[in-house]
Design goal:
The strands form three sheets. Strands 3, 4, 7, 8 and 9 form a five-stranded antiparallel beta sheet that branches. Helix 2 (about 45-60) links the parallel strand 1 and strand 2. It contains 14 helices and nine strands. It has helices at about 5-30, 45-60, 70-80, 95-100, 140-145, 155-165, 180-195, 210, 240, 245-250, 255-265, 275-285, 285-295, 295-300; strands spanning about 35-40, 65-70, 85-90, 105-120, 150, 175-180, 200-205, 215, 230-235. Helix 2 crosses helix 12. The chain is an alpha/beta fold. The protein is globular. It folds into two domains: about 35-115 and about 230-300, Periplasmic binding protein-like II (D-Maltodextrin-Binding Protein, domain 2, 3-Layer(aba) Sandwich); about 115-215, Glycine betaine-binding periplasmic protein, domain 2 (D-Maltodextrin-Binding Protein, domain 2).
Length: about 300
């Protein structure tokens, strides 16, 4: 029989207290409503949201729910409070119509990186024949492209801009052929293998520029705008409900070269966006901790 010891009793009580505290903290984390992040199945967005997901769950113990849908649906859901934020709002041009429609119900948390949209052609199209959007109207040129503009997702921001360009007769003799991002690029790939010309609605950063010899067509009238900034936009009231998450997103940024590299690596055999994001996070964990803490200088400098 063990002898009675008041110290042993105190020690047992102390350990029980720690166990209860740990369970309480774990329960509190589990009880937090998940942050609902909307995203569109674009290569850059997939890397961005999965990286943010990892940071939030690891460093803030914040549950996350990723919701995929078209960009127009995302804006409507966010304005209605059914999605908390979307980290892929291209401004001031591409998503201006969506943003202006709902902006009174939204919060702009900051800029992730810069991008560009426009029409692009592969290098089998001689620059001496086509180097600008205006050149698309030269006699006989539209026939060489079969009168097609390869584009992704009917109704997205770039689709609507192209539709306006066509309706305003800035480019004549063409029609858009819409597909998914992968479908659009598969068609480009097939055309290249056959030596056929392609006209593509392109955007960057994107792995297509690393894989295919593409160049943007000059756009002196800025029909597709200039440099775009990709914003994190949240529903109104989000920052008050999730101040730490909002602080992270207001400092969240990805160097464009790193993003481009991750997109390319994710497509290699045996790789995936999840594997690439996990490796990048592990190598840059200290920098993401600075973003979570709201240290802008440390977040920018790896």
């Amino acid at each position: 029989m063990d002898a009675y010891s008041p110290y042993k009793k105190k020690r047992i009580g102390w350990l029980a207290g720690i166990a209860l505290t740990t369970v309480s903290l774990m329960s509190h984390a589990a009880d937090q409503p998940p942050v609902r992040i909307g995203w569109v199945n674009w290569s850059d967005t997939e890397i961005t949201v999965k990286l943010a997901n990892l940071v939030l769950e690891d460093q803030l113990k914040q549950p996350v729910k990723l919701v995929m849908a078209d960009i127009g649906i995302q804006f409507q859901a966010m304005a209605n409070g059914n999605i908390d934020l979307i980290p892929m709002v291209w401004l001031p041009g591409t998503h201006k119509a969506f943003y202006d429609k709902y902006k009174d119900k939204l919060e702009d948390l900051g800029v992730l990186y810069e991008g560009r949209i426009g029409m692009a052609v592969p290098d089998i199209v001689p620059a001496s024949e086509v180097s600008s959007l205006a050149d698309l109207n030269k006699p006989g040129i539209s026939e060489k492209f079969d009168g097609k503009i390869l584009t992704s997702e009917v109704g997205n921001g770039q689709y609507k801009l192209t539709e306006k360009v066509l309706n305003d007769k800035k480019i004549v003799g063409y029609k858009m052929v819409a597909s998914s991002e992968s479908g659009m690029l598969s068609e480009l790939d097939r055309n290249l293998k056959r030596g056929k010309w392609s006209l593509v609605n392109a955007w960057s950063p994107h792995w297509m520029f690393a894989r295919y010899p593409l160049r943007y067509l000059d756009d002196p009238e800025h029909l597709f705008g200039g440099t775009e900034q990709i914003h994190v936009v949240a529903r109104k009231g989000f920052s008050a409900q999730y101040p730490k998450v909002a602080q992270f997103f207001s400092h969240f940024s990805i160097p464009q070269a790193d993003l481009q590299s991750m997109m390319s690596e994710a497509r290699e055999q045996g790789s995936s966006p999840e594997k690439v994001v996990a490796a990048y996070y592990a190598a840059n964990k200290q920098r993401f901790a600075a973003m979570v803490a709201g240290n802008k200088t440390a977040a920018i400098n790896p």
